[in-house]
Amino acid sequence: MAKEYFFDKADQTNAFITRLDVAMYEESGGPLQGKGIGISDNISTSGIPTTCASRILAGYVPPFDAHVITLLRKAGAAIVGKTNMDEFGAGNTTEHSAYGPTTNPNEASRVAGGSSGGSAAAVATGMVDMALGSDTGGSIRSPAAFCGVVGFKPTNGRVSRYGLIAYSSSMEQIGPLGKTVTDVNTLMSVIAGPDPRDATMYDRPYAHTPSKDIAGMKIAVPDEFFGEGVDPAVAESVRTAIRKLEDAGAETMTCSIPSMSHALAAHYVTGMCEASTNLSRFDGVRFGPPVETKRPWHEEFSDYRGMFFGKEVQRRILLGTFALTEGYYEKYYAKAQVARENMRKDFLRIFRDADIIAGPTMPQIAPKLGEKSDPISMYLADILTAPASLAGVPAISVPCGTVDKMPVGLQLIGRHFEDERVMDAAFAYESEVL
Amino acid sequence: MLLENDVEGIAKLADIQIQKEELTEITVQFNQILEYIDILDSVSEGEVSNSELINVLREDVVIPSLTQEEACANANETEDGHIRAPRVM
């Protein structure tokens, strides 16, 4: 039987783009019965506007649910609204939203992180019990770290992406955010159901109860995660957290990821190229604000995209288009794929001896609003999260203390399809400090 | 190093109208970003392994999908269940 969920909590951080005052949920006896869940605005929700925080999708109401939404509804969840994000996921501060930035729940003059900043802020402020986000190069882990919540990027292929509006198809992944590892684990167990509509998905359901017994777990700590560009205070906070994992029985070792020197360039080239093709579907014909059908196609299409796409999205489409042109494809895209392969090999090598790789999620605490206005300085903030996205391995961010009263995230990365072990390591850390 | 008219050419190729007054700033940003990603030049030649990839196939049978009405629901101009688009010729 359907029941009403009244969603009347004040939104002080601009976490939501669309919210339902009354959300319906099924008394299904499922694991999420009566829980209020926020959904990143790039995940399709039948009957609820879905804009990707872009003016180019203003007014779009999907006629179908993403697979993860179908699973949430079956589990008894109340979908209370759509959370703010960087337009189409292009950004890591949630400042690149057509609906204004989401502010950090800990300090309003700072960003929430991104791109799934609205989801993290909604969890941190207690507006929702849990939330879904999407992660292409850190978009779940970054806001989780900055807002002080838990955020998990599953192994690519573990969660169906049917109904996720495509930005960078080879990297993006839907994942859960919550206040605790247990909440994130529960949400993961619901969304990892198989779906033949996503051909990149493996049929590996997730039914796991986190265990804090990590005696003998081998944790590798890469030098590069504590190198140049990483705030020493953040690094110290994370080293303290890693010592807690040792207290819990883990064995640590140092390691090196030489391919990290190319990680960001490979990540951005791949993402921009994929975005330049994926975002060509937004032409105002099937959805979005109306096009003028009397004008020639290219003129109208050009003006339309110039008008309705935000500046960062335009920049990425332009760069992606350029990097895919004849003569430059080999120089950029092809080289990026080799760099990506090198990253994957580095992870496979380290994971021969170690079960988990640990380091900071973000190199710094949340920046002030407007501080990352030039593109390069914004891109550099993804240096520690892009590697797991390039390699497709699971990674979680767990809160581990504060620097200047702002939350810091401990990132734990695991082998392909060992999402459960990543969750155990996170749970063991959380159990040590709570 | 890209010049402003190179960027205009890319914008035309990408079907994105950029404003004249934005062109200088976009060109500067473009060159900064390209300078950064040029680090990929130092990646040595290598093979990208596809050995773990498998084809995912299914029978060519109709499965439930959107109705014509649902598919047209967000379109701005429709006629007899079809969507009207700008002319291409």
Description:
The complex is a heterodimer of chains A (434) and B (89). Chain A has 434 residues and is α/β, with parallel strands linked by helices. Chain A has one domain (2-263, 333-433): Amidase signature (AS) enzymes. Helices cover 33% and strands 19% of the residues of chain A. Chain A contains twelve helices and 15 strands. In chain A, the strands form three sheets. Chain A has an eleven-stranded mixed β-sheet with strand order 2-5-4-8-10-9-14-15-13-11-12, sandwiched between helices. Chain A has a two-stranded antiparallel ribbon with strand order 1-3. In chain A, strand 14 and strand 15 form a beta hairpin. The two termini of chain A are 37 Å apart. By secondary structure, chain B is mostly helical. Chain B has a domain at 4-40. Chain B is built from three helices and two strands, in the order H-H-H-E-E. Chain B has helices at residues 4-13, 20-37, 68-72, and strands spanning 78-79, 82-83. In chain B, strands 1-2 form a two-stranded antiparallel sheet. In chain B, 15% of the residues are buried. The mean pLDDT of chain B is 91. Classes of the chains: A alpha/beta (434), B mainly alpha (89). The interface between A and B is large, with 63 and 46 residues.
